[in-house]
Amino acid sequence: MSHAVTEAPGQPARPQGKPALSEGKKAERKLGLLLCAPAALVMLAVTGYPIIYSIWLSLQRYDLRFPDERQFVGLDNYVAVLSNSYWWTAFGTTMFITVVSVAIELVLGMALALIMHRTLVGRGLVRTVTLIPYGIVTVVAAFSWFYAWTPETGYLANALAGDGAPLTEQWPSLWIIILAEVWKTTPFMALLLMAGLALVPDDLLKAASVDGANAWQRFSKVMVPVMKPAILVALLFRTLDAFRVFDNIFVLTNGANDTGSVSMQTYNNLIKGLNLGIGSAMAVLIFVTVALIAFIFIKVFGTAAPGSDQGSKR
Amino acid sequence: MAEIVLDKVTKRYPDGALAVSEMEIEIADGEFVILVGPSGCGKSTALNMIAGLEDISSGELRIDGSRANEKAPKDRDIAMVFQSYALYPHMSVRENMAFPLRLAKVADATVRSKVEEAAEILDLTQHLDRKPSNLSGGQRQRVAMGRAIVRSPKAFLMDEPLSNLDAKLRGQMRTSVSKLQRQLGTTTVYVTHDQTEAMTLGDRVVVLRGGIVQQIGSPQFLYDHPANLFVAGFIGSPSMNFVPATLEDGTLKSPLGTIPLTDRVRRLAEAADAPREVVAGIRPEHFEDAALLDDAHRHGGVSFSATVDVLESMGAEKYAYFSLEEDLATTAELEELAADAGAGDVPGGGSAVVARLAASSEAREGSPLDVWFDPDRIQLFDPAKGTNLTYSA
């Protein structure tokens, strides 16, 4: 304070003016916090509490069949889960379904988005038709896939599977699960990507075609880089979603033949097996994995969003 | 470098709207041609058709003597500068400028030297590794120019390239665009709605209205010999004053008084078979404060007296606005021009006669002023058809 005064004599208004300004800012910040508080409290109650409670449960031996043996065991449950081959099989299956279905969804979603973006006639109709799968309840859709692939009565089984029962074999089952996932969520991907497409100015594409780019080069060298943030958001959303795949597997195979996901495993242990400790440890592991995926994606965002971010980074 | 020929080029949209109608221009090799007109006149559509960004409905476009209607933009070897600059936001300045060369698979060393050469010309060397988002408007504009010139294309197409710059920068860039074009000698088609750019930049100006070419000529020729009311009103700033007038016994009865016709004007009007009721046009700069003229000079012209409503002093000159008892001439063309200038939004806008006076004039707001003009400078227009009755090539 005294420094400021000695260095800038004859300007006493400034040091006096500053606290007044920050006072106003303080009040503003306080008001902001107050306005956020109700939402934050609800969030804490409905997400914070369950997360913390399941972490607490995961640190205990707690099987509802033997409630008397409840005991704090530290990380034992995690050791049990992580050293178990069933968990890792389920983890591998989940990863496979996630990566393959999101990759297919990205390609198909982009194609759909381009079609919806470019459609001149009946735009509303095209968009509505595209969104129908997304509007159907997953379990209902899963059942229709299930019946379609049921030998003798299912039209897809009759047409494609011959005498076999695809839902009783591991690889055919996995591909059918992926098919159901892709069918169901590609429209969501397409919607997100279409929003990104709208961000690519027409002039850029015109400039690229005058600069000598063909259709593919316009797409890959201009459109995709410019809409990269939207693509990453779409990928993040879908990856997080896909990693938690449950309903399709539950209906189609119920996890038989090593087709269960980590969510299936958790369900089997927690709800069917009544083992709260092991089940909660699995739930926490899923939570950690999902958080890790989100973290990696957001790291990628920070470095790769084109154009606008550079200025703010400096 | 190439010549560009538009042979009855027409653009008709699927809904039937006619954007460009039978446009006929021969643009010589190295020429700088301006397409000018109010918004919606078809100038950008015409440019997009030359670029290949819009299909040509009928007629033929020839670049360098060969038909280009069906060629894709990338095969026309033409560079374009957009109003929005259309810089690729994910590429550095260097990559932006190199993009067309990379697509053309030019060798790396050549790309580097060409980009650096262009950057040198445009004073962008120290910005080569920055992203467009970190550049000022003027710098972005120069990058857009750079991307056009690196390829040494057959022609430059520019779509209002300076419209997004502030007035001062626009003036500077106008000069440098003109210099650059002369230096490179590349055929250029330049679209603008700004008549100042049209007057100062082009070798020839094409004035468009509603998709129809109104007149083609050098800027000075359009200024001196406008073919019709629209061109007369569009070219020149402030624009020409138009008053209704009646031809009677070799004189012109108008709100500015009875004006004797000079021999030249009378001969041209008779040759054009002028109707009795006409629109008389006179440019603001052809008026003068009568008090500043010596007697001999004064008797060579006509004077009238009017009260100055508003006086704007520009330093080097003064603009005096006065309203007349009778309304000013109105025709479809003039209304369109007024609407384009935004006069419709200003109450009473466009209903005053403007005179440009010398700075030494002692005219004052609210006082009457004797205004002098040379009747030979008057141009007469047909109020129905808009044609210039005193047109002489």
Automatic annotation (TrEMBL), chain A:
Domain of life: Bacteria
InterPro entries listed in its UniProt record: MetI-like, MetI-like_sf, Sugar_ABC_transporter
GO biological process: transmembrane transport
Pfam families: BPD_transp_1
Residues forming coiled coils: none
Keywords: Membrane, Transmembrane, Transmembrane helix, Transport
Domain ABC transmembrane type-1: residue ranges: 91-297
Membrane topology: Multi-pass membrane protein
Residues covered by region (Disordered): 1-21
Record field: transmembrane: 31-56, 86-116, 128-148, 174-200, 274-298
SUPFAM superfamilies: MetI-like (SSF161098)
Gene Ontology CC entries for this record: plasma membrane
Location (main, coarse): membrane
Compartments where found: Cell membrane; Membrane
Stated family: Belongs to the binding-protein-dependent transport system permease family.
Protein name (database record): Sugar ABC transporter permease
Organism of provenance: Prauserella cavernicola
UniProtKB/TrEMBL annotation, chain B:
Domain ABC transporter, chain residue ranges per copy: 4-235
GO CC term (a single one): ATP-binding cassette (ABC) transporter complex, substrate-binding subunit-containing
Pfam families noted in UniProt: ABC_tran, OB_MalK
MF terms (GO), sorted A to Z: ABC-type transporter activity; ATP binding; ATP hydrolysis activity
Organism superkingdom: Bacteria
The UniProt record lists the keyword Aminoacyl-tRNA synthetase: no
GO biological process assignments: carbohydrate transport
Protein name, entry field: Sn-glycerol-3-phosphate ABC transporter ATP-binding protein UgpC
Organism: Prauserella cavernicola
